[in-house]
Write a structure and sequence with these properties.
Rossmann fold, 226 residues, alpha/beta, five-stranded parallel sheet
């Protein structure tokens, strides 16, 4: 069964651009690792990215964004820094990888900015999307997976050494969750929601099954797009 599932994932995600996203404490990082390892084991070239970061420039921006010392950083400044990191990542890593037929699995993308700096932070979605259009230059994911979990459960999973974004409190993270779910409601065809409150293996099975179901024809779609 495991080999069959890996083969299905390989066929579904060959050449695809998939984003894994969700609130801090959703277990996204564990599932990211499992997915990438499974795809590589099935013979795909997998390019992993994370945000902020993923490039030399992006990692420097990440240090600034997540450092708890920057308590006075404005939400607009946050948004622009995330987009700057993303622009470098798309141009230097994501777009070249897709052009050569690799599968790109991204840890966060524009969906995070819409949830954190948009719904939770108060910036208007059209304003964020206008900057995003410049930052990504038309390179959008084939599917965004949202790992959904309530803020209480998520908070119990976080390391006690919180970064600047994780320190914002339960009410902020409740709004973050609402922001993700609002994106799903607005564009259900572009998102896969996975119940991340389940046991880890159950989450993995839901993720893998959902990807196969939603992206079974992605190879043909990618070929047509390019």
């Amino acid at each position: 069964m495991a080999a069959a599932r890996a083969g299905q994932l390989r066929d579904a995600l060959r050449g695809a651009f998939v984003v894994l996203d969700g609130p801090d404490g959703s277990g996204k990082s564990t599932q990211f690792r499992r997915l990438c390892d499974t795809l590589r084991g099935a013979g795909l070239e997998v390019v992993e990215t994370r945000e902020p970061g993923g490039t030399a420039v992006g990692e420097r921006i990440r240090d600034v964004l997540l450092d708890p010392v920057h308590v006075d950083m404005t939400v607009r400044c946050e948004m622009l820094l995330y987009m700057a990191s993303r622009a470098q990542l798309v141009e230097r890593v994501i777009r070249p990888a897709l052009a050569r037929g690799a599968t790109v699995v991204a840890d966060r993308f524009v969906s995070s900015t819409l949830a954190y700096q948009g719904t939770a932070g108060g910036l208007a979605q059209p304003e964020i999307m206008a900057v995003a259009a410049t930052a990504v230059g038309g390179t959008w994911p084939d599917l965004t997976v949202i790992f959904d979990v309530d803020e209480i459960t998520a908070s119990r999973r976080l390391s006690p050494l919180l970064d600047r974004m994780e320190q914002k409190g339960l009410d902020f993270h409740r709004r973050v969750r609402e922001g993700y779910l609002a994106q799903v409601r607005a564009r259900p065809e572009a998102h896969l929601v996975v119940d991340a409150s389940q046991e880890v293996d159950a989450v993995t099975e839901a993720l893998f099954g959902g990807l196969v179901s939603r992206l079974g024809a992605v190879t043909a779609a990618q070929a047509a797009r390019r």
